[in-house]
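Collaborator request, handled under Task 6.
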Amino acid sequence: MVTNDKPTGRFLTEKGKAEFEAAYEAAMKFLPPPLETKDIETAFGRVRIYRFTKEEHKGKEPLLLLPGRSSSTPMWEPNLPGLMKERPSGMANYKISLPTPDLMSAEDLKNIHIPVLALMAEKSTMHNSQRAVQKGKTHVPNIQIENWPGASHAMNGEFPEEVNARILAFVDQHSDNELI
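Structure tokens returned to the collaborator:
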């Protein structure tokens, strides 16, 4: 477990920290073993990066899987085995206690010039998925954005095979699939 001395997050009690660390370590045992683990210093503190892949996929372009706000790496447990069949996958893991970020402006969204896949959960309590889909389609030049009926904010665990298939189809569409 990585500790952070930066003000981006903190535990309220040592007991709470110990409980989280124990649960985190237990949950990590459900994941495939990472090929590589790195700690990287950032302006926000230390970030732990895990690299998961099969030997035959080491040279392919990796997927970067980010846990949701206030979540951590084990949230991807339902997806990793399926994604690793095709691609290396890496994860950044950190805790956050900063205020909720501002929504991106239309101008910010128009300046995203990379392919984007956004799967929006219809039943999420974090956003209005229909509004988000419309905003994405209107302002992001190269986006594939979809509203997933019946999905909550934990859609990757609710629909792991479907989410994996959608991610891999998107990556295949935007990758030359040559070893790097």
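The cover message to the collaborator said: "The beta strands are 36-42, 45-52, 63-65, 89-93, 116-121, 143-148. The chain has a mean pLDDT of 81. Please let us know whether this matches your experimental observations."
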